[in-house]
Structure formats: structure tokens, C-alpha cells
Design brief:
Number of strands of chain B: 11
Radius of gyration of chain A: 13 Å
Number of helices of chain B: 0
Largest sheet of chain B: 6 strands, mixed
Structural class of chain B: mainly beta
Strand content of chain A: over 45%
Oligomer: heterodimer
Order of helices and strands of chain B: EEEEEEEEEEE
Distance between the termini of chain B: 37 Å
Helix content of chain A: under 10%
Shape of chain A: globular
Largest sheet of chain A: 7 strands, mixed
Radius of gyration of chain B: 13 Å
């Protein structure tokens, strides 16, 4: 039982490059989320999805896009990476009022 | 004002001590509440849910006061392995909002 799997675990990008972070969950959860975590800032919601084919903006969506073509996958895209997007990215999934299950995170550095 | 505010910490306590963390939230429509634990360079993991009547899980006790919009976590008989950052989490209708976390270090 893998839970929530994020790939890649680490990445270094040059400013202006693009990349996609993949999140996959095997718990049949409806809700999926992408957060970023920066020192002293706590976790901030980037985008989320309440079901297959749906996405919505969170607190800090600028510079990111997402897609949820299949229920088990939630993709986070950076079209043109900026140094301000250097962060640790966590994907999470849940059902209704239960707590989140998190992936192990992706450490992204933009130089 | 942040939606979820926690004690800034850090808390440095000796083994065996009792330590309490506090958290306030601003959205009175919040539906459910949790404490998460996050170890250094790891993902947050659910420690316990918080119920209106209060609840215990071994050495951990969580309390919720809806009228004051206040949540607490009490850790008794602290262990070295309790050293971590503790996140207060409040669930709205669509997503969960996180406090910035309180860092706890338990020393021998």
C-alpha cells in the first residue's frame, strides 16, 4: 500500500525551464492538493482538486498549473521556473473530513 | 491575521517534562481539527484528530474549544523521540489550513 507517491524527490532547474511534478495516490481519494512549504511560512496551498477533471486555485497559485485527468493522479506544472519557486512541494489526498495523507515531498531548487 | 496561529516556539524541554502547545483559528465555520507531526525534512504525518469532548492517545491529549476557537495539545512524560515540529491543522469545507508549526526539542 503505497499511499501517496511523489516524483521526482529532488530537482534542480534553471530559471525559465519547465517541469511537471507527479502525484499518485492509490486510496481512491476524491480530494487532492499541492502545497509548498517554506521556512517560517508553514504549508501554503497552491492548487487543489475535488474530483477527476476538476481543479481550483489555492492561496498561492501564480506561476503554477495543474491537471487531474485521472482520479489517482494530480500533476503540478511550472511553465517558466523562477528562483522564488525554490521550495519543498508536498502533495496530499483525503476524503471528506478526514485528515490528509501526504507524499514524501519534492525538493525543488531554481537557480 | 493568519487563519491558524500557533505558539512560535521553540520549546526546549528535558525528558519527562510535560509540554503544552496552543493554537487559535479564525474561521468559525471550520469543521474538523488535527495535530500533525513533522520531522526534519520529512512530510507531515497525522498525530491525532481533535474532538469537541477532548481526546487522549497515550501520552498525548488534545482539546478543542469551539467558542474560543482554540485548540491545544498536551504531551506528558516527553521522550527524546517526541522532538519534532507540531502543526495545528484546521479543516474547512474544501481544504485544510496549517499553522506555521511549533518546534519541540526534548533533551536528555
Amino acid at each position: 500500500n503505497a499511499g501517496v507517491t511523489q516524483t521526482p524527490k529532488f530537482r534542480v532547474l534553471k530559471t525559465g525551464q519547465s517541469m511537471t511534478l507527479l502525484c499518485a495516490q492509490d486510496m481512491n481519494h476524491e480530494y487532492m492538493y499541492w502545497y509548498r512549504q517554506d521556512p517560517g511560512m508553514g504549508l501554503r496551498l497552491i492548487h487543489y482538486s475535488v474530483g477527476e477533471g476538476t481543479t481550483a486555485k489555492g492561496e498561492v497559485p501564480d506561476g503554477y498549473n495543474v491537471s487531474r485527468l485521472k482520479k489517482q493522479n494530480f500533476l503540478l506544472g511550472l511553465e517558466s521556473a523562477a528562483p522564488s519557486q525554490t521550495s519543498v512541494y508536498f502533495c496530499a489526498s483525503k476524503e471528506a473530513n478526514y485528515g490528509y495523507t501526504f507524499g514524501s515531498g519534492t525538493r525543488l531548487t531554481v537557480v | 491575521r493568519k487563519e491558524v496561529e500557533q505558539d512560535p516556539g521553540p520549546f526546549n524541554v528535558p525528558e519527562g517534562a510535560t509540554v503544552a502547545f496552543n493554537c487559535t483559528y479564525s474561521n468559525s465555520a471550520s469543521q474538523s481539527f488535527f495535530w500533525y507531526r513533522q520531522d526534519c525534512r520529512k512530510e507531515p504525518k497525522l498525530l491525532m484528530s481533535v474532538y469537541s469532548s477532548g481526546n487522549e492517545d497515550g501520552r498525548f491529549t488534545a482539546q478543542l474549544n469551539r467558542a474560543s476557537q482554540y485548540i491545544s495539545l498536551l504531551i506528558r512524560d516527553s521522550k527524546l523521540s517526541d522532538s519534532a515540529t507540531y502543526l495545528c491543522v484546521v479543516n474547512g469545507w474544501r481544504d485544510m489550513r496549517f499553522g506555521a508549526g511549533t518546534r519541540l526539542t526534548v533533551k536528555p
